[in-house]
Amino acid sequence: MLAALVDAEIAPDMIIGTSIGAVNGAMFAAEPTRAGIERLETAWRDLAADSVLVPRKRDQFRNLVRLAPSLVGHASFERWLEAQLPIDRFEQAVVPFECVAASIERAAEQWFDRGPLVPALLASASIPGVFPPVEIGGEHFYDGGLVNSIPISKAIERGARTIYVLQVGRVEQRLSVPKRWYEAGLVALEISRRHRFGTVRDGLPDDVDLHLLPSGHDLEPSDRRQLKWSDFSATDDLIGGARNATSRYLDGLE
């Protein structure tokens, strides 16, 4: 999606991210050019090739047996972020950038827009059960998707009047009734995250132009790839599909 926007010479005045969107957003905010797109694509392809985030199965099993709060720690993810990011503080971004995480103690949104970048990104992308909470300033944080999965409300608050939503949840695709036990949780999560987005979208001010960019891929609740959090084998297909679908969408706006 970012590549299609760059191809169309659409440049952002601000970037606001949640979860893995915060990671991608921070990388692009540091280098909002075609070179930045190439850096981002290389980072994800390297991740797919090296399986950086995938711990040994015996370690995951040990964490399950001992009832640890997460399957894995942050160490590998943190090293990957530090290696890929060309900046280490929010203030160094070329385009103003901020991201959100979910405070455990306050059960509320926490927005980060200054200071060290990596801890905030780890917090914003810390999926409960997969990763442990991230401690920042004596407070503990989980994935920002729990509180504001598609943060158009923050963009409007910051004064945005043209918003491009780069989403990974197939929000443009209708949900279907679950048929298996694991599908029920996935559908419930989607209902929750989409409800807030839909509520904000339906109440948009008249002068706000919102574009929900297409992912280019359908994903049924029965598709078990949603449960394979460490499987990056489809990276190239996902990048290509989203780029082509978004390019067609943007061409249709002309």
**Portion of residues within helices:** 40-55%
Largest sheet: 5 strands, mixed
Return Rg in Å.
Answer: 18 Å
For the secondary structure, the number of strands is 7
Spans of at least 5 consecutive residues with low confidence: none
**Bulk shape:** globular
User: What gap, in angstroms, lies between the N and C termini?
Assistant: 17 Å
Mean pLDDT across the residues is 88
**What structural class results from the helix and strand content?**
alpha/beta
| Contiguous helical run count | 9
Task: Spell out the helices and strands N to C.
Answer: HEHHHHEEHEEHEHEH
Strand percentage lies at 5-15%
Q: How would you describe the overall organization of this protein?
A:
By secondary structure, the chain is of the alpha/beta class. 42% of the residues lie in helices and 12% in strands. The strands form two sheets. Strands 1, 2, 3, 4 and 5 form a five-stranded mixed sheet that branches. Strands 6-7 form a two-stranded parallel ribbon. The radius of gyration is 18 Å and the shape is globular. The mean pLDDT is 88.
